[in-house]
Amino acid sequence: MTQLAPRINGIPVPRMAPESVEYWAGTRVGELRYQRCTACSAPNFGPGLVCRSCRSRDLEWVAGAGRGVVYSWTVVWRPQTPAFEVPYAPAIVRLDEGYDLLTALVGLDHLEIAEGLRVAVEFHAISDEITLPFFRPDPSAWSGAAAG
Ligand SMILES: [Zn+2]
Questions:
Q1: What is the pLDDT of residues 79-120, one digit of tens each?
Q2: Distance between CA atoms of residues 17 and 88, nearest Å
Q3: What is the DSSP letter of 110?
């Protein structure tokens, strides 16, 4: 059993687009922020100028709870750059707020990953500007106090 760990040293740093400045400002302070449409209430992620559901421009930034379930994942054994120590597990997490986030799973063995596993966010800085969200098994889900 090998616990997957966040890869934070020397990995490629995402470039901050103008639409995502608020997202990255959130991760730096431990918040998973996303856009929500004030016209139709749909989450809008990744961030943009118009709602994907109704084309409204009335979008607001809100902070989510940082909890969700594993929707899909892969386990990487042959990384594209040596900075990624293997194995690591990129994943799509479906947030409780109703949108999907590409992330990586940590804090468990790759064989323990399962569809629908409850996970919670944790943050790790990889540069002065960029802090990445990772997800690990949600301890509150283990105690029977499952969210949502
Ligand atoms: Zn909308």
A1: 888 888 899 999 999 999 999 999 999 999 999 999 999 999
A2: 26
A3: G
Task: Give the Å distance between the CA of 48 and the centre of ligand 1.
Answer: 12
Residue 140: is its pLDDT beyond 90? no
- Distance between Cα 53 and ligand 1 center (Å): 5
The span from the CA of 133 to the CA of 20, in Å, is 14
CA of 91 to the centre of ligand 1 (A): 26
pTM: 0.91
Backbone dihedral angles phi then psi of residue 131, each to the nearest 5 degrees:
-120, 125
How many angstroms separate the alpha carbon of residue 44 from the centre of ligand 1?
8
Ligand 1 centroid distance, CA of 36 (Å): 8
